[in-house]
């Protein structure tokens, strides 16, 4: 019995011990998961490294006069890792010694909380051992630069726990000015030039090794890159900020005055086809106006401005002459059972073709088109095609829509198509196509392709120039051209725009247009009119072609082209004439004393010191303190851009001072030979070539 009892006692004891151990293990597992789970998960994250893609800095869009229209600037989200060993050692002595002074400086910098409040939130983050404590979001580089000099933070990332997550944001310094044309630069919503030239602007992304911390957030292991991000190239647009501002303000005033739905205004340089301004304004639900859609490249019924194309076809086919008479039928004429109306009553009925054009008679155009083209509509449509009214302009903007022209055989083509098309109905073309046609007349018959970008730059150096393109050398004969010019000038001296342009010191040639347009599914019952004016100035030596199109509200009391679109054209023309054209020669707009274009390549730390002395204000788009930069622009809108420098690839040195060029070259292991004085003009090792330490580079200064 004693033996049996001894054996059972040992078995029971072993069983109890095993059960106890199992309970302890189970309890410890629960404790680790529930109590210490976040701690161990964070530690697990910290043991993992990965390679993250680093987004390249996007290039800048400039106006032709050197202003920044769209640029990238860095923003920083600041976090603190309170688990770093340097903050926890000696019972947190380093944190306690610095928290008061750090709180004071944070309060002075951001001015959003008191030092006591900052101290409280820092202590709370330290107490909870937060591995990714958010201190501040979306701070600028200048704020970040000051922040890292504060107590504790100046000790570096591994002693202070400070984490700076950098991201790039796109900035339009002029906000609404040409906003739709310049475009947006969001990943899923690029439009305008930002979309058209995305492959040029976006550059090449880099790669960097990061350490994962709590939540899977990556912190760079060091400041070097596995693959250096390559900054995008800059583009120079044809937009002139001065002309764009005039155009947008003139359009805005009329939009507000007439409570219009939407409108656009285009200014084209006659000889080249450069778009100097393009304004698109649409009414928001709140009642204000914004550059919401690109109406300039959206087709609609043009109305009477299309009569220029009809007259050109008739004259070119020698169907008519300007001095023959035509009866206006009291402004009412029936064709195929449908009535054509003139928008205004005329004091006379028997007028010449030229007078009918000046009076903008729909009846006259419909009668002429019916008489000469109803039996052979393809002849008329062929002329329209020769004017390129049946195809897109090809402007460097994504989203241009094709025009709508009905042809024989289409179910929508009928006996009224040609007569209605003759005065701008039953056809849809964009305001930009109208601009291109009128510009061809102004430019002695030469049709230019409209374009918005004149060059591409890399680090301030032009690497590609985009020249004017001639789409058609002659849209019509010289004889026809002279007759068309006389008609367009007659509109402004004897016709529908006579009162608008009376007593001007320069001549204007153009055409008014008023079109009744449909209101979606409601048809024409709401009496919505589209007012337009297309023309060029000065008529005797055209410098600019301008088209204004405004869609009015339902039952607008004022809707004629001469009363709505015409004043916008006149204001733009007056300002440009007085600024650029008066006295028969181009004149530059007034410039301020500080408007000299500046471009200088330097080491950033030197620039920081220099800017304090010279009181230079600039936007820093580089994001790092130990890099080189290129500062450019004018004093009021300087921007500092990144100049990437690696140890195995030759950077561009052109434009650098000798001191900086030698310092940079020797830092990457090159031997330098110098000839001349001044700035670097040529270098023996070309930019982008591979280099090796000890290699000699010859610099030729200017």
Radius of gyration: 35 Å
CATH topology of the largest domain: Beta-lactamase
Rounded mean pLDDT is 84
Number of helices: 20
Which structural class matches the secondary elements?
Answer: alpha+beta
Count of spatially separate domains: 4
Shape: elongated
What is the CATH homology-level superfamily of the largest domain?
DD-peptidase/beta-lactamase superfamily
CATH hierarchy class name of the largest domain: Alpha Beta
CATH architecture of the largest domain: 3-Layer(aba) Sandwich
Distance between the termini: 113 Å
Strand content: 15-25%
Q: What are the segments in which pLDDT stays under 50 over at least 5 consecutive residues?
A: 585-596
Number of strands: 33
Helical content (DSSP H or I, runs of 4+) = 25-40%
Largest sheet: 7 strands, mixed
Draw up the topology in text.
Blueprint: H1 2-34, H2 37-46, E1 49-54, E2 61-62, E3 68-80, H3 85-110, H4 115-127, E4 133-139, H5 141-147, H6 157-160, E5 162-171, H7 179-182, E6 185-186, E7 189-190, H8 192-196, H9 198-201, E8 206-212, E9 218-220, E10 234-237, H10 241-258, E11 262-269, E12 275-283, E13 289-290, H11 307-316, E14 325-327, E15 332-335, E16 338-341, E17 350-352, H12 353-358, H13 362-373, H14 377-386, E18 404-405, H15 417-422, E19 427-428, H16 431-442, E20 447-448, E21 453-458, E22 461-465, E23 470-472, H17 478-493, E24 509-517, E25 528-537, E26 544-551, H18 561-581, E27 598-603, H19 604-614, E28 618-620, E29 628-633, E30 638-643, H20 658-667, E31 671-675, E32 680-683, E33 696-701
Parallel strand pairs: 2-10, 28-30, 31-33
Antiparallel strand pairs: 1-8, 2-3, 3-4, 3-5, 6-7, 8-9, 10-21, 11-12, 11-26, 12-13, 14-17, 15-16, 18-19, 20-23, 21-22, 24-25, 25-26, 27-29, 29-30, 32-33
Helix pairs in contact: 3-4, 10-18, 11-13, 11-17
